[in-house]
Structure formats: structure tokens, C-alpha cells
Amino acid sequence: MLAVLTFRVGSPCLLFLVVADADVQVIFSGFLVATVAAVVVTGTVYLLLARLLWRRTWTHSVMGGMGVTYVNSNNLGLPIAIYVLGDPAWAAPILLLQLLALQPVWLAALDASGGDRISLARLLRSPFTNPLTIGSLLGLAVALTGITLPSVVLDPVELIAGLAIPCMLIAFGISLRLSPLPGRGGTATELLVAAGLKLVLMPAVAVLVAGPVLGLDPHAVLAAGVMAALPTAQNVFVLAVAYGRGEQLARDVVFTTTLLAMPAMLVLVAVMT
């Protein structure tokens, strides 16, 4: 219930506020090209493994793909950008990329799937029916037009948005208490592979594209790697519960990557500096 409340009410309002207050021009950079490349490679590898090796359903595969590519760019990305990279601006491009592009694409793939089949009609209808996408698009409209919303509109939205993160954390904690321990229930191999893709492959691709391919400066290359090594966002677990697909895998990937992300980042920083 808390996860569904977050999905349908709290998170759309929160996404609206975040995007409406953002500078959308920051998404156009070489740093973001490296991030997109890392997302595409990592997500594709997982989807191929899930479909061809583990024989997962399309919706389960999409949820797992989101789990290995969708990072916690807000709650953890901002403080890590400040204390590790020295500038919170490094978190902004990936945050906007996820809200305006990655999340709508993953959600459209989920909404378009009926069981294991994809419907073009549902795919085209998805951006106008999914609460999270609607919230992001409305926020984008405000950001692009520069409209200043009156407090009579903004205050209730801020109040509702305030429930998103607490409800998300409580729902996640309840799931940890009531569900099997991470790695149990026949998902151990998939969990280990997913965590490896998220914490090793994704940062490696980001660094290789940012450095040798694009020739960005060393600090930008480090930033690309560190941001790609962020753990999976808890939004993924909320979506898994809302869609009724891959809940245990989503929960376990969030838990495992959050636990191991900091050691992975320390190794990355030590190697690169």
C-alpha cells in the first residue's frame, strides 16, 4: 500500500517539483554521453542474459534492466558529488536524464507489455497514463516556460511530495523484514550478476567512453565513473511493487548495491587518482 501510494501520489508530485526547478540545459554535455553509453551497454547485457539465459518474462527483464541502470542520483548522488567530486552539479545531468528520458522509456516498456507481449497502442498511450511520466512532463513544461507557480498551487504539491521518500523507505524496510533474505528464493545468481553489472560494468563503460573515446578531462572522467557507480535507486523497488513484477529482485538489488557501492567507489577513486 505504501509503495502504491508513493507511485501514484507522492513521487509524481516530487518529480514535478524537481524537474520544474531544474536547469534542463545541463543535460547537454559530453559527460552525459558517457552516462548514456554506460546505461545502454549495461541494460542491454542484462536484458540479453535475462531473456536468453534465465528465460525471464519481458516485464521481469525490464524491471531488472532498470535495476542495473537507474542510480540513486538524488539522495546519494548529491552528497557524493559534493564530498567526493567537490561540486553538486555533477549529479544534475544524470538526475535529469533519468527523470526525462530513462524512466519514461523503462515505464513505457513496462506499460506496453501485456504478459510477455508488447502492444504498440499501450506503448503510445504510456506517457499520458503513467503518474511518474506525467509528473516529469508537467515539471518540464514549467521549467521550459519559466512559469512561476503561485503558492496556492505550489504549497499543496510540496506537502504531498513530502510523503514520497519516507513512505518509500518504510515500504522498503517492511519488505526487508517480511520477505526472504537477499539472495534467497532462487535469485542468488541473478542478484550477483545484476550487482556486478551495476557496480563494475556500468562505471567501467562510463570511464572508457568519457576518457579514451571522448577525451574529457581527468576530473570529468572520474565524475562519470563515480556517478555510474551509485547504487540502484529505491524508486525501482516501488515500481516493482506497483507493477507486481520482480519485487524480490528489485529489493535485493537496491539493498546489495547500496551496501557495496561505497567500497566500489573507493576502489574506483584509488585506481584513477
Automatic annotation (TrEMBL):
Annotated Gene Ontology cellular component terms: plasma membrane
Transmembrane residue ranges: 32-54, 66-84, 90-110, 131-153, 159-179, 191-214, 220-241, 253-272
One annotated GO biological process: transmembrane transport
Keywords of the record: Cell membrane, Membrane, Transmembrane, Transmembrane helix, Transport
InterPro entries membership: Mem_transp_PIN-like, Na+/solute_symporter_sf
Domain of life: Bacteria
Pfam families found in the cross-reference section: Mem_trans (PF03547)
Bilayer topology annotation: Multi-pass membrane protein
Major site of localization recorded for this protein: membrane
Compartments reported by the entry: Cell membrane
PANTHER family xrefs: AUXIN EFFLUX CARRIER FAMILY PROTEIN, TRANSPORTER AUXIN EFFLUX CARRIER EC FAMILY
Family: Belongs to the auxin efflux carrier (TC 2.A.69) family.
UniProt protein name: AEC family transporter
The organism of origin for this protein: Ornithinimicrobium pratense
